[in-house]
Every structure is written in C-alpha cells, then in structure tokens.
Amino acid sequence: MRVERLSRDKIRFYLSMDDLMERGIEKEDMWRDIPKVHELFNDMMDQAYQELGFEISGPVAVEVFALPAQGMVVVVTRGRTPSPSDLDELDGDDMYELEVTLEESDQVIFQFQDFEYLVQAARDVQPLMGNAGRVYAYRDRYFLVLDTDMETETLQQGIAVLSEFGEASTVTEHVLQEYGKTIWDQEAVGEIIRYFS
Questions:
Q1: Contacting residues for 160 by C-beta, under 8 A, at least 6 apart
Q2: Contact assessment for residue 13 and residue 54, using Cβ atoms and an 8 Å cutoff
Q3: What digits encode the pLDDT tens for the residues 140-171?
C-alpha cells in the first residue's frame, strides 16, 4: 500500500491486488459496509498519519478507482474540521463519516524509469496486446497507457509482462495529457518496435 499527498486536504492510496488479497477483500467489497473494509480504511488512515501527518475527523469523501488486474486507487478528501460541539456528539466509532464512490478504469497504465525499459516491455508485450497504446513522458518517467478491451486472460498475461520492466501507475491519463508530454498518441507499441527494434 502506497500513499501520497495530492493537496492539503487530499491524499491518494494505491492498493495492489496483493494488499487486497492479504485482507481477504474483493473489489466488490469496497462498496459494502463490512468490518474488513473498515479495518482496511483504518489502516490506511494510520499510514497516512504516520507518513504524511494527515489526520481526519468529520466528513470524508472517498473515491475508489478499480484498475483492471492491478488493484485500486483510493482518493481520500478531508471535509470541514468539526467543531468541539460536533465532537461531543460523536462516539469513538464515528470520528469520520464516509462518502464512497466507485469507478472502474478501462485502462492499464504502467510507468517506466528508463526509456530502455519501455522499449523492452513493448517488444515483449506486442505479441500479446498488439500495437496499440499511448506513451507519455511525465516527471522523468515514461508512461504506457493501454485500453483493456481484450480477454481477461490476455490482459493478465500482458500485465505480468509489463510488470517485469515497470510498475503499475496510479497517475490517470487525464493528468498525463494535461501535465505530461505526449510521445505517441496512438499505436505506441508498434511505433516503439518500428523505431527501436
């Protein structure tokens, strides 16, 4: 589980499939009001406090983005700080209220520390996933964005190959388009192989 601060009142967690499996949580469970999801959220808030000094009480908005075969991105936004009179009305279990929304991503986004890793990944993933994709440069890294309109088994194999050279990214394509530099906006895997193999 990784956490990063997005702003003064907003943080983002990346939960891998392993993080979820260790706790016996399925993606669908994030909608449900069950003890293991509460325990996961409490662990997340403890980590946010220890690593970032991010403390919550009162209303909290939680956005959950499911990434195909990669895990989840959870964005937590802190609401207004409750007044002392509000705190008197809350018992220990209700120090925050959750407003949860869930979205499914139809993309796989991997980041690579070096362009050479991206070239190697493209070479190995092309037989499985074809020539598609988009590549962006952002914060000294390269990002490969692939749409997931393929069979689940093919997608999982492709993700396994990409994981050998890079890591799943929690950055969205909207951020890459807005703040990054577009290297290839279509057929990226094919273009990489054409120029660098």
A1: none
A2: no
A3: 999 999 987 777 788 888 888 998 999 888 78
CA–CA separation, 183 and 131 (whole Å): 15
| DSSP string computed for 58-77 | EEEEEEEEEETTTEEEEEEE
CA distance 56 to 76: 10
Tokens for 15? Answer: 């939960």
DSSP 79: -
Six token digits for residue 189: 């895997």
Q: Going from the N-terminus, what domains does the chain have, and what CATH number goes with each?
A: 2-104 (no CATH), 107-196 (3.30.70.1950)
Residue with structure tokens 């925050």?
Answer: 96
pLDDT digits (tens, 9 = 90+) for 66-115: 776 667 888 888 875 444 444 444 444 443 444 554 455 678 889 999 99
Give 82's DSSP letter: P
Only one residue has tokens 């449900």, namely 32
The total of other beta-carbon atoms located within 10 Å of residue 61's CB is 16
**96-104 and 58-67 strand pairing:** parallel
Kindly give, in sequence order, each residue whose CB lies less than 8 Å from that of residue 46, ignoring residues fewer than 6 positions away. none
CA distances, 152 to each of 83, 106, 142, 155 (Å): 49, 12, 25, 5
How many angstroms separate the CA atoms of 189 and 6, rounded?
Answer: 31
Please report, for the chain, how many H helices and E strands are present, in that order.
7, 10
